[in-house]
């Protein structure tokens, strides 16, 4: 039975949770709580412990209350006497309900983290792998062109014109002669463009669309042209498998997910970040292993020792160590010792391997960034007799 009224009946405006329409109701304060009588005669009792005052109301003359469990319904009380009596009776009027408990909140947060991780580390790579195959060559080349210019600008200290592209004709002809000797055309999804940037970074990487980029520092560190040919064969392996496009799509997809979560995280920096990712050539371990295997086979077919792929890495590790001096490209490829051993194991026992360039051509390649001051050699490959029979 409803208790004895403690105040006379007053009228107030009521908004039900299912529709934003003001309804005139009668209100009385009862022992159990606030009693509302709707126009159709239906009655509601809001228990005192469930009555809450809604904060931050523009009209300070009106007390707006709701109840726990039905936070969409509102009761607008303008009678000052009723307001005073209600404030005295409702023990939790100014309290805020914890709608979500802390353990539940942590569980939801953990689920969200797991979901985002699954998207970034599982779903995005799977989609990137599929899109890399489906993307038209024109789209890949456009992505590679844009990224190449971003890389040039990122590495230029002035930030105005971009890192110069080495243009000595004899040096570039020597690089082309090396590429022609490797002869990977039958494996390629599109033509390969080789660029040498005038920068002291010891690095080389492949970009989407068939661009392969060498830095002057790598060529200067090489002791012979076979080491450069080995690195070139490795990067061609990435082009054949479309690893740069897959990595670019994966990076862009991950940044897009983070941008949705944290706002415009990716909008202004995605191109530079993507360029940095491709400079570091942070492909997956499986992609690196596949590119190494491809390089071993391509070098062997061209009559160049597959061991050349490991000799530069081995020498640089011995000279500079792991902590410094080796650029991120090499540092990002794990288990370097195993890669060096694999290159040595790929050498066919008893087979003699030849040089990939004549000495004059090699000197021109080493000085390719000296603005045409290199010796103008005959960049033809060594005579047929310098290569093993059958090549």
Overview features:
391 residues, single chain, 13 helices, seven-stranded antiparallel sheet, three-stranded mixed sheet
Largest sheet: 7 strands, antiparallel
Strand tally: 10
Secondary-structure element sequence? EEEEEEEHHHHEEEHHHHHHHHH
Rg over CA atoms: 36 Å
Number of helices: 13
Share of helical residues: 40-55%
- State the secondary-structure class: alpha+beta
Strand order, main sheet: write it out: 4-3-2-1-7-6-5
What low-confidence regions span 5 or more consecutive residues with pLDDT below 50?
265-269, 323-332, 372-391
Tell me the strand percentage band. 5-15%
Q: Averaging pLDDT over every residue, what do you get?
A: 79
Shape verdict: rod-shaped
- Terminal CA distance reads 104 Å
Outline the structure in words.
By secondary structure, the chain is an alpha+beta fold. Helices cover 47% and strands 14% of the residues. The protein has a 7-stranded antiparallel β-sheet with strand order 4-3-2-1-7-6-5, covered by helices on one side. Helix 3 crosses helix 8 and helix 7 runs antiparallel to helix 8. The radius of gyration is 36 Å and the shape is rod-shaped. It starts with 9 loop residues before the first strand and ends in a 25-residue tail after the last helix.
């Amino acid at each position: 039975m409803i208790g004895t009224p403690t105040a006379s009946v007053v009228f107030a405006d009521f908004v039900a949770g299912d529709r934003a329409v003001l309804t005139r109701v009668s209100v009385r304060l009862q022992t159990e709580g606030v009693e509302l009588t709707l126009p159709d005669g239906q009655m509601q009792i809001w228990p005192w412990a469930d009555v809450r005052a809604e904060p931050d109301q523009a009209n300070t003359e009106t007390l707006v209350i709701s109840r726990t469990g039905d936070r969409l319904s509102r009761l607008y009380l303008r009678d000052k006497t009723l307001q005073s009596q209600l404030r005295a009776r409702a023990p939790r009027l100014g309290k805020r309900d914890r709608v979500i408990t802390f353990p539940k909140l942590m569980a939801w947060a953990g689920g969200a983290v797991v979901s985002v991780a699954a998207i970034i580390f599982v779903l995005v790579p799977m989609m990137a792998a599929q899109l890399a195959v489906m993307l038209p060559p024109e789209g890949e080349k456009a992505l590679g062109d844009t990224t190449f210019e971003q890389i040039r600008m990122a590495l230029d200290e002035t930030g105005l014109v971009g890192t110069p592209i080495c243009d000595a004709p004899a040096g570039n002809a020597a690089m082309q002669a090396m590429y022609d000797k490797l002869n990977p055309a039958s494996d390629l999804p599109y033509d390969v463009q080789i660029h040498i940037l005038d920068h002291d970074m010891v690095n080389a990487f492949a970009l989407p669309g068939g661009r392969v980029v060498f830095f002057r520092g790598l060529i200067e560190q090489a002791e012979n042209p076979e080491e450069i040919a080995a690195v070139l064969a490795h990067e061609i392996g990435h082009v054949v498998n479309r690893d740069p496009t897959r990595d670019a799509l994966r990076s862009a997809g991950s940044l897009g997910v983070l941008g949705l979560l944290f706002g415009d995280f990716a909008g202004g920096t995605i191109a530079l970040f993507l360029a940095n990712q491709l400079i570091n050539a942070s492909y997956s371990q499986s992609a690196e292993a596949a590119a190494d295997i491809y390089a071993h086979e391509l070098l062997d077919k061209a009559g160049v020792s597959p061991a050349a792929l490991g000799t530069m890495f081995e020498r640089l590790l011995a000279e500079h160590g792991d902590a410094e001096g080796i650029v991120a490209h090499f540092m990002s490829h794990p288990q370097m010792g195993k890669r060096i051993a694999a290159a040595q194991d790929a050498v066919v026992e008893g087979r003699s391997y030849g040089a990939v360039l004549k000495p004059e051509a090699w000197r021109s390649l080493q000085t390719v960034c000296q603005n045409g001051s290199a010796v103008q050699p005959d960049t033809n490959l060594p005579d047929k007799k310098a290569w093993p029979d059958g090549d």
